[in-house]
Design a protein that fits this description.
Length: 160
């Protein structure tokens, strides 16, 4: 099964420098997390952006859309910051013939208590099993892109 992975940055890739929360978006964590999962074959991973999702622009979303639409793989997994993941997911609707899954983490993938491994594992399964469409995977659930929101107060995703 042909799967392409695109990375855009976000908390999953953050590196913290001190207890005050100074950070930068570091190199993508997805390859390291998938190596730990002991996949039989590593999918192609392409770094598109290295941004906090709050800094993403409409032009950035067009870059992501162009990359997804232009890739040969029928199944695409995107790592993304959680703050604007739903916005990007909605911008990807209408790409014909592709199953697109976006996921991220509320804690950096480099942290022992991160949700990154769990979210990535569920997203990897979802991209293989879901029908054509766009989905957000977080908090142990798979959401259609047009029926999800991030609840900022509870810091989790929920259905609309």
């Amino acid at each position: 099964m042909q799967i392409a992975i695109f990375t855009t940055g976000g908390t999953i890739d953050k590196v913290y420098f001190d207890a005050k929360g100074n950070y930068h978006v570091g190199s993508p964590m997805v390859r390291e997390l998938l190596v730990h999962a002991r996949l039989a074959a590593m999918p192609q991973i392409t770094e598109l952006l290295r941004k906090d999702s709050l800094e993403m622009t409409a032009a950035d979303r067009e870059v992501v859309r162009g990359a997804v639409a232009g890739c040969a793989a029928p199944r695409v997994l995107i790592t993304h910051g959680t703050d604007t993941m739903v916005e990007t997911a909605r911008a990807l609707r209408g790409i014909a013939g592709k199953t697109i899954v976006l996921t991220g983490a509320l804690q950096p993938g480099r942290f022992a208590d991160s949700d990154a491994e769990f979210n990535l594992g569920l997203a990897f399964g979802a991209v293989q099993l879901c029908p054509v469409g766009v989905y957000v995977v977080a908090n142990g659930a798979v959401f259609p892109a047009d029926r999800v929101r991030k609840n900022l107060e509870l810091n989790r995703f929920e259905p609309l």
